[in-house]
Design goal:
This protein is an alpha/beta fold. It folds into two domains: about 200 residues, Isopropylmalate Dehydrogenase; about 160 residues, Isopropylmalate Dehydrogenase (3-Layer(aba) Sandwich). It is globular. Bound molecules: 3-isopropylmalic acid and manganese (II) ion (MN).
């Protein structure tokens, strides 16, 4: 039987409880499709840091390279100053494992409430490809004359062509793969007649950040030449926010730089029902990828069984797709889509079921 090695980082707060449900469902799918998950748990997170003073052992990221994937619950502890765990664990993994794509599907599932008026699952169904290795997250910059009235702070948005190109190529290819069997539903007839199957929107700020987005825009058009079946579009980041609310059906695949992607995917998450359902993958398509619910550790809810595990379950499906089990992934997604209509709400404590009951429902549907 095929077996995959998975590093599990349950993390802090409510992370462990949602990971239990995610694994319940992933294991059920594995049994159904004839493979197994060989799990190894790591205690990285706030508790370990407070106990040992060490955020991440030096060997950690090297050790992670031997796994097929990493499954992460949540990182964040009320007694640890913001930034330490985020930078020391989450961002360190992303950088050391070169997980250069942050893939964030934005899909309104059946029965899930959206704050967008008159919008349904057919309108809110797109994917954000967030560049995950560069930009303002690079850490280049500094502070001078600290704590004086003349203090200067610089934080640079850094990109090299290699980073931009590999991200754009991934996004074009993803768009092609998504629609190879059926063209994007909102594609105009004239575009279909011209042989297009999907649309990739570059989200940038070419009118102000001319150096960085000049580079993105030039490379976008060069790579586009390899993908004549993909319609290209461009939208400034501020306008993207507006259209994500007003006309989300205008988007198929959006590709953008790191910080813009961080911001627009929180907006996107609330339109699809909130952090209880939004999942993401930090991908190194040639290496080890890490999958996580977008929500945080929500410490005040720890142990209450009120957190929605759907995001973690969906992150598990993304993980199975990435390691080469697309049928298991699609089956989990279908089981989730029959579970969400039975839930009262996606918000913590108002779901009509406990965290583990939802895991049971999805696993039983499988
Ligand atoms: C995310 C988070 C992280 C980010 C933080 C926790 C460092 O907001 O995954 O979107 O900014 O990337
Ligand atoms: Mn974020």
């Amino acid at each position: 039987m095929k077996s995959y090695n998975i590093a599990v980082i349950p993390g802090d707060g409510t992370g462990p409880e949602v990971i239990v449900e995610g694994l319940k469902v992933a294991n059920a799918a594995a049994a159904k499709f004839g493979f197994s998950l060989n799990l190894q748990s790591y205690d990285f997170g706030g508790e370990r840091y407070l106990r040992t003073g060490e955020v991440l052992p030096d060997s950690a990221t090297t050790e992670m390279k031997k796994y097929d994937a990493i499954y992460l619950g949540a990182i964040g502890h009320p007694q640890v100053k913001p930034g330490i765990l985020e930078k020391g664990i989450l961002l360190r993994m992303r950088f050391d494992l070169d997980q250069y794509i942050n893939l964030r599907p934005v899909k309104l599932l059946p029965g899930v409430e959206t704050p967008l008026k008159d919008k349904g699952p057919e309108h809110i169904d797109y994917v954000v490809v967030r560049e995950n290795s560069g930009g303002a997250y690079t850490g280049l910059g500094g502070v001078m004359m600290k704590d004086t009235p003349n203090e200067v702070a610089i934080q640079e948005m850094v990109y090299n062509r290699f980073q931009v190109e590999r991200c754009l190529r991934y996004a074009f290819q993803l768009c092609r793969d998504l629609h190879k069997n059926s063209p994007w539903r909102w594609l105009k007839d004239e575009d279909k007649a011209a042989g297009k199957i999907g649309q990739l929107t570059l989200c940038g700020k070419t009118n102000v950040l001319t150096y960085v987005f000049g580079l993105w825009e030039r490379v976008f058009h060069i790579v586009a030449a390899e993908f004549p079946d993909i319609k290209t579009d461009y939208c400034h980041v501020d306008a993207t926010c507006m259209w994500m609310v007003k006309s989300p059906e205008w988007f198929d695949v959006i590709v953008t730089e790191n910080l813009f992607g961080d911001i627009i995917t929180d907006l996107a998450a609330i339109t699809q029902g909130g952090l209880g359902v939004a999942a993401g993958g930090n991908l190194n398509p040639q290496g080890v990828s890490m999958f996580e619910p977008m929500g945080g550790s929500a410490p005040k809810y720890t142990g209450l069984g009120v957190i929605n595990p759907i995001a973690t379950i969906m992150a598990g499906a993304m993980m199975l797709r990435q390691i080469g089990e697309p049928k298991a992934a699609a089956t989990i997604e279908a089981a989730v889509a029959t579970t969400t209509p039975k839930m009262k709400s996606q918000a913590a404590g108002r779901m009509g079921y406990s965290t583990s009951q939802i895991g049971d429902l999805v696993a039983a549907t499988l």
